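Dear Dr. H.,

I hope your travels went smoothly. While you were away I took the liberty of generating a structure for the chain from your last submission, since the lab meeting agenda had it listed for discussion. I wanted you to have the full record in hand beforehand rather than looking at slides cold. The sequence, exactly as received, is reproduced here:
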Amino acid sequence: MRQGFADAKNVARGGAALGRPDAVSQRVRAYQGFTQQIVSGAILPGQFISQRELMTLLDMPLGAVREMIPRLEAGGLIKTVPQRGLQIAHVDLKLIRNAFQVRSMIEREAVLAFVQSASDAELAAIEAAHQQILARANKASTTDAQLLDDAQALDWGLHDRMVDALGNEIVSDIYRVNSLRVRLIKLEQSVITPAILMPAMQEHLSFIAALRERNAAQAAALLDAHINSARSRVMNAPNH
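The corresponding predicted structure, in token form, is as follows:
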């Protein structure tokens, strides 16, 4: 997702360098790299990991990794365990309920705004992209190794787009951190399969149709149903 990680050999540079703009950029890239590791499943819920392991995994200087950790702790994504090191957030009922509640609150506001701000051309393009995913999925005789990755990217991309369309960087930042919690939950609770992802595409098409009709109330109701469906899948998983 993100490119251009700094050379890990820069670890030897002094702490004073962290105040420079390039060091700030390194901290941002370290956080983006951590995000990508969660998205890809390389970092798992409950996993213990050291700062130096993170440095190697992210290909970033140790100083940048250390500066990133407070942000991760503040977001509830990681915690320091005495004598053990850093631990990625556990997935439990409290995390599931809290993460999906935050998601629902932000996305409901976002969809009510998006129904007014999105152009007809953009909505048509979004709808077409979803229909293409379903068409690929319906070709049962064809092996499409990229299908699930493309579908998942389209799924999250639509939600991110609606939130970003609010034009509120504070809300977008909160949403991005919460999205990482939701992705940790999904990694813990289920393997992504066509049986799980394809219904999500259908649910998307339902509220996309309401968006194209400029029906705010229906779009919000269908989005709520979509988020509740996702929450129910993880709440009803065998571990819960």
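Two observations you may find useful: The first strand starts at residue 48 and ends at 49. The chain has two domains: 8-88, 93-235.

With kind regards,
E. W.
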